[in-house]
Write a structure and sequence with these properties.
about 750 residues, alpha/beta, Glutaredoxin, 8-stranded mixed beta sheet, 4-stranded mixed beta sheet, about 45% helix, elongated
């Protein structure tokens, strides 16, 4: 070990007596400073203050300083390693090494140790920027940054090992530098080669270094990537030692090839074994554990035990969603499942490609006198599809029934013979299912999904229509992420006049009945309530006579009149009540909205009153603002002038509940009933409202989670990041700009200059 250290010290002295080592550090600093320092004024003004550690240093979407330099680091190492061996061979000093008592392995290890020290200096340069975050960002996420630095350091050392090997292949330093550039560029971009072919895709991805570094830089330290970098470094060092040893001993070509092959095979075997899912160890260094699935999803996977889960992704080559799931995007697809494979390694992933007709396309083809066969040929040429690798419409129908899935990319999960669909979404900012949808689909495989049943009598809101006042977006839109069918629920409808209310349902929804129910229907509803069934009743202003008979037994009444609210931009019948404290207690996910005073939009709402001494315990869920809204008595006319409060006409000022939660113990469980003075807040129009910031969708899912006793939707929330403030000021920003634009580069330049002058004097 002493000889290795001595060789390393000698190599470092040679390295830093030349201008190239100092120049590389200076260029690296200037390059990083040009990307980092201009962001400081915005930071001082308070722009984008959330998760600052990630945004400022890591996240490529926010041009993090570390991610920005990652793809450029391979440019620095070849100029340092180009002479590390070739200098010895070109000068003839390699012969002295052959005859010296020092082993060749010690020489190579000493030179590599010198490069490790130089790489530490590169890390030190990077730390000059991280120091700003550590000083000016309270609650700085140190573990995340340490893992990111470790990832960069491992990659630099691997680059150095490759550079040493390439330097041993030639006597010319320039050739060594250029060759190392080529090799590192190849390793940098090889992950993009052959992504459409299974075998080549896996091979090239396994050789891609930046992908592994970026994965660890996100804060997820894993044994697979660490071992990979250590093995690749060791493998190239072993190749270098073998190369030099074979130059001084006589071996046949076969013996030489076998030795090189053995080194490569041992290295690849270790990386292969260590990359098996069962062998990988993980550590999520982020403060919010953003790389780890939530505790709830972990618990779902744990309950599945050792039984395997099979995921089969069905991709229609004729539908637009095919562009998101092409074979060349398979690696990214697998990466989306890795957080789940981490806790359940026996999830089997399959992909099935087929071609079939798209809903609505048949009519268009007929209008254009175009056959389906012609359409298939046109689309296959357009998308460059090899139809021999795709199942035909007949073959896919024999395998699975995808009717109703819009011919889009869809995944089927299978566990113990039970199946469920996991869908993709459009239009959506993110095409693939997130943890909430994936966790819900997995949980459906181990529990009975809660069923929400919508009553259809009395011209009520439909769960299958796309009209503004209907409920398809909430209940049954398969392309919508927030739809109940994608959050774990089953939905169905029932005619109260002609059928019985199904047993064992999570809740019955009666929304905006416009005509009174018959005695028969009322008897069914009352029996359902008496037996402890959960119920949602949503009425509308002007329909008090229809809804109040249903509310009498609950101790609730819909008051006469219509709630109005003063507004410069909106109609006076649009009220925006705030969440009451009971809403936060009803569903924990609503608590942040309650604290931030978010509103729910309710056009044409009626006020509610309840009996505190009734058989149900009642609490308001939504309350109107007493300063800007009131209860308008009589008919509300909006087409001539703005509504005006008129006490003489019977108008009432005050804060009125527009939604109530009712509970009581019944049949060994808590019976839950929700009453709303408005049915529009769940409508397609209000859930897609864009001219006002509302939380109708979150409130709706919160209600149904309450009905499902917390089973669905899955809570995948994480604690908010704490690094959301900075102590940076305008004055400190100017000081930092002077330091990073002038002082530190000047110090580098002067230090290098002094050392070079001293060297020339010697």
């Amino acid at each position: 070990m002493k000889k290795i250290i001595q060789i390393a010290r000698l190599e470092l002295s040679l390295l830093f007596y030349s201008p190239i080592a100092w120049l590389m550090l200076l260029i690296l600093f200037v390059q990083m400073s040009m990307g980092f320092t201009p962001r400081l004024p915005d930071l001082a003004r308070g722009a984008g203050l959330s998760a600052l550690t990630d945004k400022l240093f890591i996240n490529p979407e926010y041009f993090g300083v570390l991610s920005g330099i990652l793809d450029k680091l391979y440019l620095y190492i070849p100029l340092i390693t180009m002479g590390i061996i070739s200098r010895e061979t070109s000068s003839g000093s390699i012969k002295l090494l052959y005859s010296s008592p020092v082993k060749l392995s010690q020489v190579i290890y000493g030179k590599f140790l010198a490069m490790m020290v130089y790489n530490l200096m590169i890390i030190a340069v990077i730390c000059l920027f991280i120091l700003v975050g550590a000083i000016y960002i309270p609650n700085f996420d140190y573990p995340h940054i340490f893992v990111a630095l470790l990832a960069i350091y491992l990659m630099l050392n691997t680059f150095a090992a490759i550079g040493i090997f390439v330097s041993s292949l030639t006597n010319y330093q320039a050739v060594a530098a250029i060759s190392t550039f080529v090799v590192l560029a190849f390793m940098n971009y090889i992950g993009r080669i052959g992504q459409g072919i299974d075998f080549i895709r896996d091979l090239t991805h396994s050789l891609s270094m930046p992908d592994r570094t970026a994965r660890m830089m996100s804060g997820l330290l894993n044994s697979r990537d660490v071992i990979y970098y250590l093995v690749i470094s060791g493998m190239f060092l072993a190749l270098t030692i073998t190369k030099l040893e074979l130059e001084r001993v006589s071996k046949t070509v076969l013996q030489q090839v076998m030795r090189y092959t053995l080194i490569v095979l041992v290295g690849l075997t270790i990386t292969y074994v260590s990359s098996r899912q069962q062998m990988i160890g993980y550590y999520d260094a982020t403060a919010t554990k953003q790389n780890t699935i939530s505790k709830n999803t972990q618990e779902i996977l744990k309950k599945m035990g050792d039984e395997p889960v099979e995921m089969t992704e069905y991709i229609n080559g004729l539908e637009d969603s095919y562009n998101q799931a092409k074979p060349n995007q398979r690696i990214a697809d697998i990466a989306r499942w890795e957080p789940y494979l981490r806790f359940k390694p026996n999830i089997k992933l399959n992909w099935v490609y087929y071609y079939d007709s798209i809903p609505g396309i048949t009519a268009q083809l007929k209008q254009q006198n175009f056959t389906f066969s012609h359409y298939v040929m046109f689309m296959s040429n357009l998308n460059k599809l090899d139809l021999r690798k795709f199942l035909t419409p007949a073959e896919i129908k024999e395998q699975i029934n995808l009717e109703g899935e819009n011919a889009r990319v869809v995944m089927q999960l299978k566990y113990k013979g039970k199946t469920t669909f996991l869908r993709t979404f459009s239009p959506d900012s993110y095409f693939w299912p997130k943890e909430a949808e994936t966790g819900a689909a997995l949980k459906r495989l181990i529990v009975n999904a809660p069923k929400i049943v919508f009553a259809t009598d009395g011209y009520q809101r439909s769960m299958n229509k796309i009209g503004d006042r209907d409920y398809k977006t909430l209940a049954n839109t398969k392309l919508s992420r927030g739809s109940m069918v994608n959050q774990g629920f089953d939905v169905d409808s029932v005619s109260l006049e002609n059928a019985e209310i199904p047993a064992g349902i999570a809740a019955l929804v009666i929304a905006d009945p416009k005509v009174a129910f018959s005695t028969r229907a009322m008897t069914k509803i009352q029996k359902y309530i008496d037996q402890g069934g959960n119920l949602m009743l949503a009425g509308e202003a002007g329909k008090q006579s229809v809804i109040n008979p249903l509310l009498d037994s609950l101790g609730v009444k819909m008051l006469k009149g219509t709630l109005v609210q003063e507004s410069k931009d909106f109609s006076n019948d649009l009220v925006t009540p705030n969440l009451a404290a009971a809403a936060a207690a009803m569903t924990p996910e609503l608590q942040p909205y309650y604290l931030r005073k978010w509103v729910v939009s309710m056009p044409g709402a009626a006020a509610l009153a309840y009996n505190p001494e009734g058989s149900f315990t009642a609490h308001p869920l939504l309350m109107t603002n007493p300063e800007s809204s009131w209860l308008k008595n009589g008919k509300l006319v909006l087409d001539s002038a703005a509504a005006v409060f008129n006490a003489k006409a019977g108008d009432q000022k005050g804060s009125f509940p527009t939604a109530l939660m009712l509970t009581r113990n019944r049949e060994h469980k808590e019976q839950r009933i929700m009453v709303s003075g408005d049915a529009d807040f769940l409508s397609n129009a209000e859930l897609s409202r864009m001219n006002m910031q509302t939380m109708n969708s979150g409130f709706a899912l919160g209600i149904f989670k309450w009905f499902a006793y917390g089973e669905f939707p899955i809570d995948t929330s994480r604690p908010d990041p704490k690094d959301n403030v900075t102590t940076l000021t305008k004055i400190s920003t100017k000081i930092l700009q002077i330091i990073y634009y002038g002082v530190i580069p000047g110090v580098f330049f002067l230090l290098g200059l002094v050392i070079l002058i001293r060297r020339k004097r010697k």
